[in-house]
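Exercise 7.
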Amino acid sequence: MLRSAWRFARVGPAFVLGAILVLPSGLLAQTHVVSPDEMQKEAVAATRARQNHLKTVTQFFSSPNAQKALRSAHLDPTQVKTAVSSLSDEELARLASRAEKAQADFAAGNLSDRDLLVILVGIAALILIIVAVR
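Solution. The predicted structure, written as tokens, is:
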């Protein structure tokens, strides 16, 4: 009797450890089910964010200074605005943050017309390159 208890004490933990290693970890993991309402809210939030970024960039390129800068660099402002809509969400978000910063710096007097021209041409070229690569 003592011998069978001792044998169980040695084999039992080995069996339990073996079962844990053999079972798929996903079976033991806690699952999370996303409701359709949560999915819809996330989709709406992503769409709103994209629309806001698109609006910011479009307004940036619609300003008279931007139009003048793009024309002086021999870039078509309409083509640039059209290309903006084909950017990915991540690219558009980065571009919108750069446009906001450039507008704020220009409004505060930290940028001259020449600096704005360089920024606009750089951003427009970046947009056209990204669209051309796709």
